[in-house]
Every structure is written in C-alpha cells, then in structure tokens.
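In response to a reviewer's request, we include the raw inputs and outputs for one of the modeled complexes. The two entities were modeled together in a single run.
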Amino acid sequence: MIIHHPLLGPRDAAEFTYMGDAKLIDRPDWQSETAAQEFYEYGYLRDNPAGWHKELWFHEAGDRSWLVVTRNTLTHEISNVELARDVARARGRSK
Amino acid sequence: MTQRNRFSTGGQIDRSTTHQFVFDGKRYHGHAGDTLASALLANGVRLMGRSFKYHRPRGVLTAGSEEPNALVELRDGDRQEPNTRATTAELYDGLFAKSQNRLGSLRFDLLAINDRLSNFLTAGFYYKTFMWPAAFWEKLYEPVIRHAAGLGSLSLQDDPDVYDKGFLHCDVLIIGAGPAGLSAALTVGRAGADVILADEDFRMGGRLNSETFALGDDSGADWAAAAVAELESLPNVRVMARTTVIGAFDHGIYGAVERVSDHVHTPAEGKPRQILWRIYTQRTILAGGATERPIAFENNDRPGIMLASAMRSYANRFAVTPDQRVAIFTNNDDGHRTAADLHAKGVKIAAVVDVRPDIPRSHDYEVLHGEVIDTKGRLGLTFAEVRLGDGSTRTLECGALGLSGGWNPNVHMTCHQRGRPTWNDTLAAFVPGPDLPAGMCVAGAANGTLSTAGALREGHAAAVSVLDLDTSDVDLPQAEDTPVAIKPFWYVEGCARAWLDQQNDVTVKDVKLSHQEGFRSVEHLKRYTTLGMATDQGKTSNMGGLAIMAELAGKSIPEVGTTIFRPPYTPTAIGAFGGRHRGQDFHPKRLTPSHQWATEQGAVFVEVGNWMRAQWFPRDGETTWRQSVDREVLATRKSVGVCDVTTLGKVDVQGTDAADFLNKIYCNGFAKLAVGKTRYGLMLREDGIAMDDGTAARLAEDHFVVTTTTANALPVYRHMEFVRQCLFPDMDVQLISTTEAWAQYAVAGPNSRSVLEKIVDQDMSNDAFPFMACANITVCGGLRARLFRISFSGELAYEIAVPTAYGDALMRKIMEAGAEFEITPYGTEALGVMRIEKGHAAGNELNGTTSAQNLGMGRMVSKKKDSIGSILSEREGLNRDDDLRQVGIKPVDPEAPVPAGAHLMAMDGPIDAAHDQGYATSACFSPNLGHAIALGFLKNGSERTGERMRLVSPLTQVETEVEIVSAHFIDPEGDRLRA
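The model returned the following structure tokens for the whole complex.
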C-alpha cells in the first residue's frame, strides 16, 4: 500500500506501524462519573467495519508522525490522510 | 545420442552453439535457445517424470510455465532445486537434471504399484482411510505417507547463491511481451513514457515465436525481435526478459521475479541468482496471453500427449517434433493449425480428430469426426483409439497426440484485488471481469482477443488510453485475424480414469465422487480433491473441473464460478522473498560503544533485540559460564564492576509541559520531582497492565531524560508519541530518541565513587551527589557528560553517559581508573543475577500480564492525577485479595534447583492447573547466598512469607521444596544504595 503522508507525500506502507481504530484519540475524561465504564469501552470495544475505517498509522521509519488514515478495509483504497494531531485538536483535545 | 526429432532447419535456436547436458545420468546435446524440455524431445525423450500420487509415467504437457508434469530436480549439490519445470528451464552447457518422484529408476518406479491401488486412493482417501486406529496416525501412517509423498527433494544444504530485492518505478508497466504487449510497449515507449516491459520467457515475443503467421512482410518472430530491439534502444524503456510478474498488490505495486542467473551454470561473480522486484506504477497493461487447455479421456496422460499449441511451440520455435507420427484431438479450429504446421515440416499426421461434425477438411491428412477414447503405450504413447461419429472405432498409430480444448485467457492478475472473471460464451472461457485492480487495463489474448491482429490492435489501444494519446496515426502490420470457432467439450464420457489435474492426479471420476459426497462449492471441490492445488495451480486443469461440476449440479459454468486467484502467478523461491535477509543479515546487528573493547577482553556476546551485548567476560582457567558470572557478581559487590547499559532506551523530553507529560505516561507522579533528581517510573498500558519501567531524570525545569528497558525502547517511544500527538496535542513538549546518541555505563560497587572521582569533574560526596541525583557534568577535564546515581544492582552505583563517539575511550578510562580497585567488567548474566538478588523486576516480571499490584507497586499508582492506565488499574479483576504478588523463592535444600517457569503448589494435594498457586519468573544461582534463588508471583504472596511450598515443573521432572521469602535477598533496607 502507499500512504500519502500530508507532509512527505506518497510513502510505502512498510515505513509505517499500524495501531487500529482512530477512536483511540477519543480518550475519556478520567474525572467523569462513569469513567470506569467509559474507559472499558474505550479500551475494549471497537468497530470492525467491512468498508471505510479511520485508523491510526505511525510513520515509524519516517518522521514519527501519527496519522489518521481513512481506508476501505475491503479494497484498501485510501480516501484521506491527516495528521493525527490535527484530528485530535479538531475533536477538542488539547492538554 | 543424435537429436533425432530435430528438424534440419528453422526455429529460433542457435545451431552453431551446442550444449551438452545430463538427464538422469545420461548425456544429451541441445542448442542455445532450447529449454530442457525441447532438448529432451529433440533427443527422443518423452518420459520425464512420475506423477504425484499414482507414479504414472508422464512427459511434457505444455511448453511453458503452466507445465504440470515435467518437473525435475535441476542442478546438483547445494544448488539442486526441486520441482523445476523442464519447459521453462533454459538449456546451458553442463546442465544437470534428474527426474523426481520415483523409487528406483524413472522407467521402473517401484511406487507405480499405487496405480494398481487407485481404487483405494480416490478423492479424500486421506480422510477416509487413516481414521482408525487413532494411534496409528503418528507412528505408522504419517511417516509412510511423508516418505512417499511430495515431489522433488531438497539438497538439505545451504543455498550458496544470493538473492536480491529491488525497487522500480515507472509510468506504465506492461506484463507480457507477446503481440499485444509489444504493440503497447512500442506505442508507449515511442511516446516517451517510462515503461517497464516484463516477460517470463527468456525470448520475448510470446506466441509470435511459436506460430508461423506473418506480420506484414516479416515472420512473427522477426517482427518481435525487431520490436524488442527498438524498445531496447529507447532510454525510457526497461525491457526485462526472464521476469515473471507474480502479483498485483495494492495501489499499483507489483511483485516481479527476475531470474538473473538461472540460465547459466553458476552465477557470475557478484551476480544474484534472482531478484525480487517491487514495481511501483501508475498504469498497467496486462498482456499475459492465454493458456490452452487439454481434453480429458481414458489414459490421456501418457508421455507424448500434450497440448496442440505446445507442439507448435516445439516445432516452430525449437525445431523439434515430439514424434515422427502425430495425431491431433481438438474441439476447435486452432487444433488444426498444429496439424498443418507439423505436416509442412514433414511430420506424418496420423489424423486430426475433431468432436465437431462440421469440420474443416484437409487435402494433406485425414480429418475425422469423433473422440479419442483410450490410448496405449506403457512409457510413451504408441496408439490412440478413436470412436468415430458413426459409432465405429479406429486405432491410430502415433507417438504423440496434440490436444486442443480451447484457450483460457490468463486472467490471474486481474483477480488479485478481489476482481472476478466473467464468462464468454464465444470463447467458452473466462475473461477479465469489470473490477480490475486500479490502473490496470488488459489487452490481447489475456482479454479474450485471440487473433494476432486483434492483439496488436488492443495493445496499441491500451497504450493510447493509458497515456491519453492522439489516436490518429496507427500503423500496425497486417496479421492473422481469424475468429474463434469452438464447441465446448471437456471430457469423453464413460472413462474409468480420465486425468484432469495431472500434477495432483485428479480424475474426472474424483470430481464426480466429491460432488456425490456433497462438496458443492468450487472451493470445497478444490480442497477435497486437491484439483488445482499443485505447483501449477491448475492452470491447465481447473476449467475442466468447473465444467464437470457445473454439469453435475445442473448449473452453468459461470454460476459455479472459479476459485480465487492468488499470487504468486508461478512458484517463487523462498530465497527470493528472503533476499539478503538471511543468516547474519536476517536483521540488523547493533553494536554497543564498548563492543570493540569487550571483544578485546574476550567477552561472550548475546543478542538482545538487535543488540549484541557482552554476556560475560571469561578469564583464563574458567571452564564454565557460572564461574565467570559468579566472579563478576562477587567482585562487583565487594569492590567495583562496570557494565555497558547503552542499550537501554533513552528518550529526551523537553518543553514547558514536560513534567505534565511524564505525569500522563507514568502512573506515579513526576511534577514535583526536583531538578537534579531522578525517579523510578512505572508505565501502564491503558488497560492497567504494566507496560515498562525505567527512570526519568530531571536535568532542568523543562528537560527530562527518560529511560526504557532495552526490549521496549521502540514501543515505548511509539506510545509516548501517541500520547503526545493524539491525546494531548497542545502540550508544549518534544520527544526524541537518544538511545544511540549516548554511551552509558553502570559503575557499581562500594568503590564506584572512588573510581569515578578520578574521572569526573564534580564533587562526588554523598552530600553533593546523593542517591538518585543526576546532573549534566564534564569528565576528563571538559568532555560533556551526564551522571546519574541510580542502581540496578543494589550497590552504591552510578550511570555515566558521554556522547557515543567517546564511549570506547570512556570505557578504557574507567578500566584504567579502576585498576587499583580491581574493577571487573560484568555482562548481562551478572547484571541479571544482581537484580534478582535485589528483587528488581525486569522483562520476566513485566511480562504483559502483570499489574502494578502484582508487582507490589499498587500504591505507586497515583489517584490524584490522570495517567494512562490509572482508571482501569482500579477495576475489580486486577484488585482481588488473592491476586498474585511478587515474592522471593529459595530452596529449603541449598543444593536444590529452582527453575524459572516452574509453578508453585501447596505442600499437599494434587499438582495440576486447578491447584496452581503461582510461578517463578526469574531464577539464578546467588553466589552471595550460596544457593539458587528466584523471583515469582504467588497468590496473596505478600502475606505468605515463610510458607513452605512445592515448586514443580512436571515437564522437566523437577519438584523442589521451597520457602517463600522477601523478594529483596540482598540489602533489603537499601543502606548500600545510600552509602
């Protein structure tokens, strides 16, 4: 596969390490009343879609960016690649 | 031996170059441009192998890479390669080959008895026959089957040749250099695009080399040669013969194997045997041609029976006829071409047998309407029996029989990305479907366009479309443009054994049997009968099986469908996939800064991850590793020792939020750590299980140095970047791995301060530099360095780091400064002994199943802050009263062993999993205590000090009575650390 890195252009997938569902960005609030349940869901419950999926890839043999790659798990087509940091900010994460 | 079946003229062989070769111990001669198969046929050799299951005599079926039968062991000694197709093995002088899958000689194979037992060896015989008694499987059935099964044999020696991997990029990849591929390549190449043209054959041109058609004023072969010459002259075209594209992968990536040296006796100096190329391309034109299929009938597998198109290849390209009397059995017009070509070369045509009533007649030879119903000839064809249209029978005397059952477009590569082929009634064959891999188009016979003129047109059109060219000037040569005329015909009715898959010995009857037994899916048929599962992947046999299945199920062939086509297109050597990554080069080797020095000391090294670390330093007179390790431990605890700890991961953490960041990744607190201090940190996974441990040293308000274990340096760094970029993107913090930037040594033992005082430019007193202090310092009068007062051994100890380039010099300096204290270098074994004696957890304890609570560090998990893993570490399952706790284990009898991995059981009661109380994780002999010790985990272990238990390892028959003790065997109060 070839992943179009937003900063570095097309790169071979062999340069990356895969982590899975980009929902891992949405880490729950530790002070929530239902934190235990939320962390359980965050840690263990994942969708496994046959189709479009947002997933985390780490450019380990490159610039060490975490990326959010929108990939079709059936065809391996990639429709979008973003810096995970930008996605995290857009989803309201900060410090 | 004379080449009695070689025509005196013609062919694309170099008659001026004669190659001598050996097959099954016998010497023969052939020419440059021959394959092993063509040279054997020229010499009148039809018998080339024995079949897989029944050991039936077999010869060539094809003239290409789809060959199921003529598999040989090519070359000898350590270069011997089994299951090599004689039809693609290029002849060279001195070639050595043996037939395979025989017991005894090829002519008198003792296992041919299997053929007599064939009633017992039908589809699924494994599953049915060897069921009972169960105990017989391992002891009797399997060894016998293993001995008899399999095709060629391995040399069992290391392959002396190298294999390479390479990367290529192009605008257009063209797969196949037949008329369509060459036509496409000329158009694309002349337009200036970067082109790779790959063909599996050593001579490009595809069927043009095997046919007598003219292209314009030239013969097909001459036109192909001229086209290849022009392409080779273009700087933007890379022409790759002997290169098989084996798979179409995601996003325009193709795998290709180039056989660089298979056609020479020994690879030239510095040349690899093969190269596995990864080709990156935007557009691909698949022009992979088509494969002819045979027809099944009784005894259709005798040597001399082959595809009619293969006969034309042998006759026209290699100037060889398989025999002087040839018959043809066909269901389409193409079969008649073979008769015409061979007749023109003076071969006697016994008859052409066509299943169609309205058949083309010939003045030159007899054409019969009928079917071939049986053949004779034990080691090679002698007679073919024909049932004529009127029901009468006739016997034809012939030494070769050409079969033409129609052509299958080579759709394989079109299906590597989930595409499925579609059925074409006119051709009675599958053609590429609509879902091609992105960027691919198909041209010529691969696309179902079987005429030469059609292939030239489609190749050109494909090139025009991929480059979006102006189409006005087309100047293609005149060529044969005959439409396909075929009557689908797969097998002759009423046969006892009509072979479909000759490599796996699957008959028409086997397919019927599997249907009868309920295997209705084509994938099930394949696995039950093994149809199409051999090295040829059923290129000549699958269609027949599908047709019979369809007939039995009352469905159409497209309804039955094909099995999935998967890479590789043809068998590929594991060596090519391995490339240079083997032996010493299997993975990179990382050397520590003191490696040269340690080598000089005669150190024994051990691989830790990719690192080579000194394991121990043997001295004269020491005969076992234990003597060296015991000495190193005792000397360190008594005076001073030094150990290279560079391999521990180091991550530099800088920024105004650096302390907050460490608070997130460690379960214990770091915000209040003073500048100039170091703290032990435990890192949890989000699920509450311990991930790694190490230290963080605060060198400045906004600057920490974090260490990780050697094994986890990479995953921990990855995790830290995840936390930084994905969870807390606005923290002002930067990370960089500095593992290789600093050489770091542990100097441990009561005299460590005295040694380092001689080197560092720093007040080393306990007040000025207490336990857990850290500082940026200088050594040797000005070299920048870092000093940490941390201890893994439990002794007064320091870790000192200098830029890597000075690592070797610093080690030599430390040894020099320590000479008066008899400083002792120690390796990873002594390091391990001392940490077990001290009760420090390491990889065996942080094993991916243990929590902070298990490790006795439950109270370290801060509840006052957010850190990775803190919430889930509180879950019920990790906080039971009888949870495992880290303990020390010592034998009651000081001589007794305490093996790591052994389990703790009560003194009485059964020894089984249900009564398991815990297990030993790390064990060693403690030279300080004079007996073995171990660390381990025990249920509710912190409350069970002093208890006697059994430590058992039923597999190694160890049962030791042990006492549960504190994990801190040495200096439990930590006085030595603070001295």
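As requested, we also summarize the result in words. The helical segments of chain A are 35-44, 84-90. The longest helix of chain A spans residues 35-44.
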